[in-house]
Specification:
4-stranded mixed beta sheet; 10 strands; alpha/beta; Arc Repressor Mutant, subunit A; 3 domains
Length: about 325
């Protein structure tokens, strides 16, 4: 069990962020059969041929050697700075890693059998190891993750909108406990039962960084510098993305009543979302989403409200009752 000692100041300084580089590392680990959760069969079948080709054609194996079940070097997944983090931001920071810092991290992490592969060793021991690993990861990003990233990012952004709403309605303790079934709030701190090792982490006023991910298996943590104290948790909507909802009752009655597209939209609005978020997360055309939302709103099933620069839609009590009844 891992316990985070959290003060009021820590809660005030806690924040959310997205990390494209970390999600790329999770994805690569999953495809390699190591770090990260198992991918759905359809995703793995689609990505594995390109992944294996990249291992042959690029120096991706050198990067993969650095990943362990416990983590990996910080320079391949630098701490994110906020919700607007992009792969370009991450790549620039990876490339700016001082060679000596990279050598230390490579020595600490490249300890498995693959680290003795002459081809891998030649990359890790070269003076330009950072740029060669960065180039391999950039190719992996563009060929494996970039096509799906708008949809995956939208799911994570919707998760953050939901969590912020929970903070406003119920407070931080409820929000933290909702991140994972093993988390409980206990007397000035949070206990994460998922971790087998026992330890206490004190935040000492610098807050907690919370990162939603569609690739993390259950929950992960960073507890040492240079990362802030961090929890990486599974974003809401991941189950629907992976098709895990197929075992649950299907909203056939709702589909018959309002049509398939509108039933999908109404069911997806278990948390407030904008037109663009819905379009990306459901892979629908923005214009079609806007038209369907207008019909649902005119029928009294949705309301909308401005939040910053976005207009968010949420279900009315009537909309909630229809979705609940269809299940």
């Amino acid at each position: 069990m891992l316990r985070f000692e959290v003060s009021v100041e820590d809660l005030l300084r806690s924040r959310f962020a997205l990390s494209p580089a970390m999600d790329l590392c999770f994805l690569l680990g999953s495809l390699a059969g190591g770090r990260g959760g198992p991918l759905p069969r359809a995703w793995a079948a689609r990505l594995l041929p390109a992944f294996e080709r990249l291992r042959r054609e690029s120096e991706l194996d050198a990067a993969l050697t650095l990943f362990t079940p416990q983590g990996g070097p910080n320079f391949v997944a630098p701490p994110p700075r906020g919700l607007n983090q992009t792969w370009a931001d991450d790549l620039a920071r990876i490339r700016a890693t001082p060679p000596e810092a990279a050598r230390r991290e490579c020595a600490a992490n490249a300890t498995g059998p693959s680290a003795r592969d002459p081809r891998v060793r030649a990359v890790l021991d070269s003076p330009d190891a950072v740029s060669r690993i960065a180039e391999a990861m950039d190719r992996a990003w563009h060929e494996l993750l970039a096509p799906d990233w708008p949809q995956l990012r939208a799911i994570c952004e919707r998760d953050v909108v939901h969590r912020v709403g929970v903070i406003g309605d119920h407070g931080w303790a409820t929000t933290i406990e909702s991140l994972h079934a093993s988390i409980t709030w206990q007397a000035g701190g949070m206990e994460v039962g998922h971790f087998p090792r026992v330890g206490v982490v004190r935040l000492v006023g610098d807050g907690l960084l919370l990162i939603p991910s569609v690739f993390v298996r259950n929950i992960a943590a960073h507890t040492e510098d240079p990362w802030p104290r961090t929890l990486i948790y599974r974003a809401r909507g991941t189950a629907a993305l992976w098709g895990e909802q197929e075992a649950a009752p299907r909203p056939d009655a709702l589909t018959a009543l309002v049509g398939r597209a509108r039933a999908r939209l109404l069911s997806a609005l278990d948390a407030p979302a904008s037109t663009s978020h819905l379009a990306r997360s459901l892979a629908m055309a923005p214009g079609a989403v806007g038209d369907h939302l207008a019909v649902l709103r005119n029928a009294g099933l949705l309301v909308r409200a401005r939040s910053g620069r976005s207009v968010l839609y949420r279900r009315t009590p009537l909309g909630e009752a229809l979705v609940a009844g269809s299940g």
